[in-house]
Amino acid sequence: MSDEAQARLASLLAALVGLYIALSPIWTTMSTGVMVSAIATGSVITLASIWQLFTKSTLPSWINGLASIWLVIAALVFGSYTFSVWSQIVAGVAVFLLASWDGSEIAHYNERNEHASSLT
């Protein structure tokens, strides 16, 4: 699988996890702080992941990485219901790993194209 295809797959998976995070207050009991954080952070992750599908910049991956760190911190600070806390932590770790994979593949893709263009 090419770098570009792997980056697209990572972006698509991160968008799905972001959507899960944003919609998770529908089916899980959460404190108000975690609910607001989940909706906002899930929306940011989803939008950054969709943006990543159409650009070759690593900025959306950085945004997702930072958002995933915030998601875990918010769950630990504001969370009071065990399932919702663990759900947010697992989703945050998943997004962080996907953002790292996505950013790495985009960087490799850009590096190869830069090297190829310098040869011509």
Describe this structure in words.
The structure is a single chain. By secondary structure, the protein is mainly α. The chain has one domain: Substrate Binding Domain Of Dnak, Chain:A, Domain 2, CATH 1.20.1270. The protein is 84% helix and 0% strand. It is elongated. The mean pLDDT is 90.
Produce the secondary structure layout:
Blueprint: H1 3-23, H2 32-53, H3 59-78, H4 82-119
Helix pairs in contact: 1-2, 1-4, 2-3, 3-4
Name some characteristics of this structure.
0% strand, mainly alpha, single chain
What's the short story on this structure?
The protein has four helices and no strands.
Number of strands: 0
* CA-CA gap between termini: 25 Å
- The CATH class designation is Mainly Alpha
CATH topology: Substrate Binding Domain Of Dnak, Chain:A, Domain 2
Mean pLDDT: 90
SSE class: mainly alpha
Unreliable residue runs: none
